[in-house]
Design brief:
This protein is 27% helix and 24% strand. The chain is an alpha/beta fold and 335 residues long. Strand 11 (268-272) and strand 12 (275-279) form a beta hairpin. The longest helix is centred in the first third of the chain and has 14 residues, at 55-68.
């Protein structure tokens, strides 16, 4: 295919058009706050209820949510609050449960939601192993329930544009993918705690690894180099940084890196026989990219850099799927 004269438009539906569902939020941490704010400001979804380990924690979350978003919509209401996760999933008015607890609790809390007969969206990673994911998928399938991993990048408009370019062969034969993600965290952050499965493996590395598989397909060979975080940073000795080299069945090569020890460019590059795609950092968030032919011609894509406010795209995708009776959400991981 010849180099295009213009980039395709994203095919992502307007999140405001997604059928409004009633969400129960299981967990009250950082990501739950941003998820709820994104729903309030960019969709017609309702944050109906929130559950925490204590009623006080749930009340504090609900009050702060209303205060932050008081100007977002005239329909905003204070969520109902529950002092246990069991009470949240048992609320008969909740249509879908969003599991936003720490990584090692995703399996039991997703099982709890599915056991209560709820459509369930689980923060990434859905499980700590293939076995855990298989358990959840088997339970959801047996009960005929919707289950989705909340890997929000897959639902962003820019990645639909990239998907179209890949599927149309604009880059030619894809030879390689490079992606990195590094952030600096203080010693008090939960990512420094071994008991919470801290380190980059279950958190930051998720994005470069997802991106490589999204472009290249399944990775058939992989090798990694891991170094621990210094004791002065993490007394628990969690992994500090991981470098991964991998090969796909088609012969493409991935070079991936993630670290919790400092900031990196957090960019991604796809090198093809006809063109190179360079995604601005942070590549996994809303933003822009440049498509460059090997003869120097360029095309530029930009979208508002709204950071985690972009979580609303995955919520809208889940709502459309649940309302349509599907058991999973369609996203831009395949052509």
């Amino acid at each position: 295919m010849t180099f295009p004269t213009a980039l395709p438009a994203p095919r992502t539906p307007d999140p405001m058009d997604a059928p409004p569902l009633r969400w129960g939020v299981l967990g009250t941490g950082w990501i739950a706050q941003r998820f709820c704010d994104a729903l309030a400001r960019h969709t017609r979804q309702r944050v109906l209820a929130v559950g925490s380990r204590t009623r006080e924690g749930a009340d504090a979350f609900a009050d702060a949510f209303v205060a932050r978003n008081a100007d977002a919509s005239g329909r905003l209401e204070r969520p109902a609050t529950y002092g246990s996760y069991e009470a949240l999933v048992d609320d008969p008015d909740v249509d879908v449960v969003y599991v936003a607890t720490p990584h090692h609790l995703h399996l039991p809390h997703a099982r709890l939601a599915l056991g209560a007969g709820k459509a369930t969206v689980v923060e990434k990673p859905m499980g700590l192993s293939r076995s855990e994911v298989d358990q959840l998928e088997a339970l959801a399938s047996a009960r005929g329930l919707f289950l989705m991993e909340a890997l929000w990048s897959a639902y962003l408009p820019k990645f639909d544009v990239v998907r179209q370019l890949l599927d149309d062969g604009v880059l030619g034969t894809v030879h390689s993918v490079q992606a990195d993600l590094g952030e600096h965290f203080g010693p008090e952050h939960r990512i420094m705690r071994a008991d919470l499965f801290g380190g980059p493996r279950y958190d930051l590395l998720t994005y470069p690894l997802w991106f490589a598989r999204w472009v290249l397909g399944d990775l058939v060979e992989a090798a990694e180099v891991v170094t621990p975080a210094p004791a002065s940073v993490s007394p628990d000795g969690v992994e500090g940084q991981i470098a991964v080299s991998a090969r796909s069945a088609s012969g493409g090569v991935a070079s991936l890196f993630a670290t919790i020890l400092g900031d990196t460019p957090t960019t991604a590059t796809v090198v093809g026989s006809a063109a190179t795609l360079s995604i601005d950092g942070p590549f996994y968030q809303p933003g822009g990219f440049t498509l460059r032919a090997h003869d120097g011609r360029e095309l530029r894509y930009d979208e508002p850099r709204i950071a985690h406010a972009g979580l609303h795209f995955e919520a809208a995708a889940a709502a459309r799927a649940v309302a349509a009776g599907r058991l999973t959400a369609h996203h831009q991981t395949t052509g």
